[in-house]
Structures are given as structure tokens and as C-alpha cells.
Design brief:
Two copies of one chain form a homodimer.
Chain A: E1 21-33, E2 37-43, E3 48-54, H1 60-68, E4 74-83, E5 91-102, H2 117-122, H3 124-127, H4 131-153, E6 157-158, E7 164-165, E8 176-178, E9 184-187, H5 192-202, E10 204-212, E11 225-234, H6 238-259, H7 261-266, H8 272-275, E12 283-285, H9 286-295, H10 308-315, E13 322-325, E14 348-353, E15 358-365, H11 370-379, H12 388-395, E16 401-407, H13 408-416
Parallel strand pairs in A: 3-5, 6-10, 12-13
Antiparallel strand pairs in A: 1-2, 1-4, 2-3, 4-5, 7-9, 8-9, 10-11, 11-16, 13-14, 14-15, 15-16
Helix pairs in contact in A: 4-6, 4-13
């Protein structure tokens, strides 16, 4: 095999080469032949190209090689680029020669038929090559760049918080690993506490990286490893925090609608359901949420956390995400700020995606009172020595601050309209799935 | 405490408010007083502001509060913005009132004096607030956005590779964690193998996330947790790969020089040493490198890997990074492609930063021959069942492909001119350091 990328054209760039001869490389997805004319569809990661071979105009060797092509054979093809409005990408290639770079035996596992999900996940390294999976991965990548750009343009400083931590964050469902002579390290479930320290240095920060939950949940909304984006803003209160969330989500959705139309079409996503996602979002106080739920027949009582079914009932008919805010203290994490107007509750919000996708963001104003935070740490029986540094943030110049966490895969699943979160991750990790 | 961010101005935005009254919030860094006029310097994460209080023009309460200010007290100040070329940021604030939001006791640990490194790392959550650390974190964030933008603009698809893996990648120095009924999971040392699978689906991809090494190294170039950026490109050979690397590094350095001048000045970085970092970079064949080293008195022999001292000798006098390419097979990883011109070597490169910073990138063309790769896996005694999916990439349409890994913290350390990599990470993880 020889190679020098400058001699080759990418499929996406072919319209600019119309009328000229080029060499392309890629993998065969389909072949068909009428005996004298053969059609080969290839993909190279940038696009899809239909190649036409006319038996009378190519060498006997090229024609013979055509006969050996199977799905996923990697090929190098030389030919003339012809504009053709009916073709995918607007061009086809009139081949003058065809070479096989890497053959593919006839037993390629992923066939154009129904496969069971376990089989597909066992072959995730190959399943990624299918059109639907490629479309999802591209939407995911667009969402991630949109997230980066949103915060960069607004002068947030990216601060990567550590994965390996000493007994910090939420407590159940931790993955542990031996850490030299330091005892156990735990894989971070959140970067928030570190983000708070960084916000006191840099004002507006965010982290965005993998987080881990060693939970035995088998739902369509849980992974053991997932990416989470967590901004933290000095001097933002809970209202500012919700405002940032609705601007953020609106930005992401608009960006995908603008730049990933082709992929959304491939996924048969009803984009009219996304076009209405614009700030501001409706805000429902937890007290009202309980009344609404009860009026809809739910048995939820004041003080309960809301489950997936409750969440679905609350967004019923909504054309954009909905905030539920100021939950009871017992239902939420220790670091949330007590609500001065109703100390049974905390200043927080969940942002629920429409169409039954449920919570995609949890946010809160943080408890900035040293004594009250200390009390909450003791109530929750958290290891005080591990939280000394976190208390320091309230000791030395405490400050109003708020932040939130957006779950990437849940957001991807919602925007792509996926039935299960596992397709939103390139290599999903589930309770029973660590490979490939 | 009350708060609504819309009523407040960020320090960086103050020049646009010249002549008007604004409210700002931030933390006190310095105070001094002449008895009738007081000066308070505050920072809010966006910038530094000098505030002037004239005793005769503020309320007695505000003047009294001034007397209580200590380093890191968080304050809210109202006053008039005045243009002043001598002031940091070009403005100062003539205060009309001052309120204390969060006091700070006199025992703030980080004082403007020399502290030992262990003390500073123990107080990393506060140390981050110092000017030098903030400058480093901002340069780091700029480098990370530059990385994202470089690949986004070039139509690479971001693919997040998993952290939790089943016995894959390099083998020594792995952190292990119990994974439900699946036995041990290991924290990824690289995303490359997954990146290769994704490159066959999407052509040009990159991953960029945390990676882990459970190694007992105590050098100024090693962390146990660090971020690595790993592009993988279908149809790129080793030459294309080096071209991509030099363009990538030149892009990053130019971006930091353009947008982070203030931070580089704060770090007293000699930017003339960065301004020469432009592609192409010198390329030295391993064979020549050994001869050069021997001529300089090194005892290195053909077949040895190159150590930090050798690397320093090779870049001596260079005004930009230097590639050393095509190392002996024994010195490098099993997945690198055998060099057809000299099968004792593999098609790979290390990219060495100037000024003694050493390797910041390792790259290679990947072995695309099924049988040769299988042989190498067996020679290295790797668990064959864990590599079945990786071999599949050579079974179904194998393809020329190459990629590399850039160590983020090493790159930050070089560009910032840091003596030790630990300052390049917000919360560095070292053998003996898991907190805060």
C-alpha cells in the first residue's frame, strides 16, 4: 500500500473538481452491475460517492476487481468527477481504474437487516460505520463544539477538574481504585466542587469531561460513564443560573439545526419539535409542580423527588424544555443553598427536555454560608477532613455562586430523537458492557 | 446576600462604562491608605481593578468597612468609572460605597512570600487565585480551545473514547477498578485503538480527554492523570502525520501568541522563543539521531530508546520543535507499522519541544497488515481475546492510517515556560498527591 494524502481528494470536496480526474479512497457500501455497467457506492468518512464503471472503458483488471468487491472492501479509484444532481453529494465518478487496498471477507457482521442490540454492541467497532451511527456521532461532535464555543465566546475559562479524587462529591455508586500509598481514589461523579474553587479565581468557568456512576441502573437514560458539562459562575444567583441554562440549550439546538440538517434528516428527526426550543423556558415552582401532578392523577406528595413519570407529565404538551425549581431540601444535594423564602427548600432547578426525554440539566445556587454548609456536611455524615478545602471557599471571601451540570448523552439522545442513550456514546459503558 | 448579575459590571467591561456609575463585585488583593484616601485593588476573574475611596466623599460606614478589608475579602463596590491609562485595565473606580459580602480572616494561607511546593499544592484550591496560576490556567484554556478549533475547522469528528476499558492499550501502570460482574476495568492510557475504529467510520477523527498512568515516576514531566489529544486519520501515512503535527503545533502557538499576550507577560515568558515556532519542523531519522548523539558524547547505541538527556541534546539550538522519526521496533509500541525500507524500524515519530521540554507528541502510522499485527500481539503476549475487535479493523477493509497523541500539560508547560508540569494542571495528580 502506498499513500500520500495530498494526491487524493475527499468525497466532500469533489464538486470543486468537476470535469477533472481525481483519485479517491474509501470503503464499499453497495455494489450492483448490469453486466456492462457497474455501480459502486463508497464512503470515505467525508461523504458518500457513487462510482460508475463501464466495462468497455476500464482495463480488464479493474473490471475483474469489481467482481471481488464486498461490503467494507477498501478501494482506491481513479476517475472523472461528473456533476449529477440526482447523486448523493451532487457528483458521481466515472471510473478509469479501481484497485483493492484492503479486501473484506464475505462474513462482515453488520448486514442490512435487523440485528439484536447485544450483537450490535458487541460489534460496536464496526457498527459505527453504519449511516445512522455516523449521523449520531456527527451530531454529538457538533453539540460538543457548540458547548465549547458557547462558553469560549462568553469568556468562561475552561478548567479541567480531576477524575481521581479522594472521597468527594456524591457518595453512593463510586468506582474505586488503589492509589499508591494514598488509599483509594474514587472516579469523579462531578467536577462541581472543584469548579467552585476555580470560579473564585477566574469568575466564570466550566468543566466538561467524563464522569462515572457505579450504579446498577438498567434504564434507557443511564450509562456508567458519560460526559458532563458543568459551568460555575461567581456572583450568579439561581435566577441568573436558569437564564444561562436556557440560553445555553437554545444555542446548542440552533447550532445543530443550522449545521447538521443532513444528519437530522438521516435520523428522521422531526425538526419542528426542535425549532421551537427558544429561551425563555417555562418555570414551574416545585410546589406548583406537585399540585399539577396531583391534578393529573399522580400520587406524588410534597417532599418527594420527582421520578421519570412525573417529569413526563410535567412537560406534556410543552414545545421547549421546562424548569422545575426550588425542590425540598431532602430531595437534593447537601451543597445547595437554603431558600431564604422557604427554608424547607433549596435554590435549585432541574431542566426537563420535552418529548419525554426528562432531566438533562440539574443546577443550583450553592450554599455560601460557612456554618450552614458545615451543618449539612455533618447531617449527611460526609468525611469532614475531605471537605476542609471546600469549606475554605466559604471561609475566605465567600460569594454568591451558581452552576449546573448538563448530561451530554441525554442531550444527544433528545436532539437526535434516540430511544436509548446507549447510541449517543461512541463506546457506551453499561453495567454489563465494558467491551469493545 | 442579594444578587442579580445584570445589575453588575465585570471589570473587563468597565472601559465601556467610563463616566458612569456601576456596581462591581470581587475579591480584595491589596489595600493601602494615606489616611484620607484609600486604595483597594480587587479582582473578579475578568480583570484587576483599582478602587479609590476618598474619606470625605463616602459614607462613614463605607470608610469604616474599608478598615476591615483583608486579602480575599469579597466586596461589592459602587462607584464612577474613570479612564486612567496608568491603571491596570485602563480604568479606575471612584468609589461611592463599599460593602463586605464575605469577610476573610487574617490567616489566609497564601501570602506574598515564598511558600514550599507541598504547602502550595495542599492549598491548590486557594493557590489558583494567585496571578501566576490564573495566567497559566487561561493559557491552558486557550490551548484547549485552539485544539478544538483546529480540528473542527478541518472537518475532523470529535469521538470521545472510553476511560473504562477491558485490558487494552499499553499494559504496565494501569489503574484498575472492579466493574460489576465483568471483572476489572482499567483506566485508559490512550484512546488511540478506539480512535482507529472510529477513523474507519468517519475518516478524520480526534479524541481529547483525560488519560491515566499508574507509574511511580517522580519527574517534572509526569502526572498520573493528564489530558491527551489524539487525532487519527484514515489514509494518512507517516509523512502526512508529521505534516499534520507541525501544522497543529504551529497553530496552537500562534493562537496563544495572538490572544494571550497579557498572560505570557505575567509569566515573563520570552515570546521570541515561541515566535519562531512555524512549520515545517526539522526531521531527523533515528539513525542520524544516534550518530549526532554519539558525536556529542552520548553513550546511546542503535536500538536504544532516547532518554530525556538525549532529547535535550538533539534539540540544542533549535528554534522550533524537532521530529525524530522511525525508531527501532523494540523501543516502540506493538501497533506501529513496520518500515518497509528497514524492517528493524517502525514508521513513527516523536516531536520534541525546544528549550529542553522534550517529547510533547508521539505519533505513528499503524500496522495495517492483519498477520503482522497478530504476530506482534502474540510477541508482546497481549490477551488476544481483548484485541479481537482491534484485529477486525485489519480484517474488514484494512487501510493506511496514522495518528498521534499530544500531551496537554507538557504543551502548556512548554508554552508557559514552567519548570514543572504540576503547575500546568488545575488540580494535579501525582504519586503522593490526590488532594484537594
Amino acid at each position: 500500500m502506498t499513500s500520500s494524502s495530498s494526491e487524493y481528494a475527499r468525497i466532500v470536496d469533489l464538486p470543486a473538481h468537476a470535469g477533472r480526474s481525481v483519485r479517491v479512497r474509501g470503503w464499499v457500501t453497495h455494489v450492483r452491475s448490469s453486466g456492462k455497467v457497474a455501480f459502486v457506492v463508497i464512503r470515505d468518512g467525508s461523504g458518500i460517492l457513487q462510482v460508475v464503471l463501464v466495462k468497455s472503458t476500464v482495463s480488464p483488471e479493474s473490471w475483474e476487481r469489481f467482481g471481488t468487491l464486498t461490503q467494507e472492501t477498501s478501494v482506491e479509484i481513479e476517475g472523472e468527477v461528473r456533476l449529477d444532481k440526482r447523486a448523493p453529494g451532487g457528483v458521481e465518478l466515472g471510473a478509469t481504474s479501481l484497485e483493492v487496498e484492503g479486501p473484506s471477507p464475505g462474513d462482515y457482521p453488520i448486514q442490512p437487516k435487523e440485528h439484536g442490540i447485544d450483537f450490535l454492541l458487541d460489534h460496536r467497532h464496526l457498527w459505527l460505520r453504519s449511516e445512522r451511527q455516523r449521523a449520531i456521532l456527527r451530531v454529538r461532535a457538533e453539540i460538543e463544539q457548540a458547548i465549547r464555543d458557547f462558553f469560549y465566546e462568553r469568556d468562561f475559562t475552561l478548567v479541567d477538574t480531576p477524575i481521581l479524587t479522594a472521597a468527594i462529591g456524591e457518595r453512593s455508586g463510586l468506582f474505586a481504585t488503589e492509589y499508591f500509598d494514598e488509599g483509594n481514589a474514587y472516579l469523579a461523579q462531578t467536577g462541581q466542587l472543584y469548579g467552585e474553587a476555580a470560579a473564585a479565581a477566574l469568575g466564570k468557568i466550566y468543566c466538561f469531561g467524563p464522569t462515572f456512576r457505579a450504579e446498577k441502573s438498567k434504564t434507557r437514560r443511564h450509562l456508567t460513564e458519560f460526559w458532563m458539562c458543568e459551568p460555575e459562575v461567581a456572583f450568579n444567583d439561581s435566577n441568573d443560573n436558569m437564564k444561562l441554562q436556557e440560553e445555553f440549550i437554545s444555542f446548542i439546538v440552533a447550532r445543530v439545526l443550522e449545521r447538521k440538517q443532513k444528519e437530522l434528516a438521516e435520523l428522521e428527526r422531526d425538526v419542528s419539535k426542535l425549532e421551537t426550543v427558544k429561551a425563555p423556558f417555562p418555570r414551574i415552582d416545585y410546589n406548583d409542580a406537585v399540585k399539577i401532578l396531583q391534578s393529573k392523577g399522580s400520587e406524588v406528595k410534597w417532599g418527594d423527588d420527582l421520578g421519570a413519570e412525573d417529569e413526563s407529565l410535567l412537560v406534556e404538551g410543552a414545545d421547549r424544555p421546562v424548569f422545575i425549581f426550588n425542590y425540598p431540601k431532602e430531595a437534593k444535594a447537601f451543597y445547595m443553598k437554603e431558600n431564604p423564602a422557604d427554608p424547607r427548600t433549596v435554590l435549585c432547578d432541574d431542566c426537563l427536555a420535552p418529548e419525554g426525554y426528562g432531566e438533562i440539566i440539574g443546577g443550583s445556587q450553592r450554599e455560601d454560608d460557612y456554618d450552614r454548609l458545615l451543618e449539612r456536611i455533618k447531617e449527611e455524615k460526609l468525611p469532614l477532613d475531605a471537605y476542609g478545602w471546600y469549606l475554605d471557599l466559604r471561609k475566605y471571601g465567600t460569594f454568591v455562586h451558581s452552576g449546573f451540570g448538563l448530561g451530554l448523552e441525554r442531550t444527544v439522545a433528545w436532539i437526535c430523537g434516540l430511544p436509548h442513550i446507549r447510541e449517543a456514546s461512541p463506546f457506551p459503558r453499561l453495567m454489563n458492557r465494558l467491551r469493545p
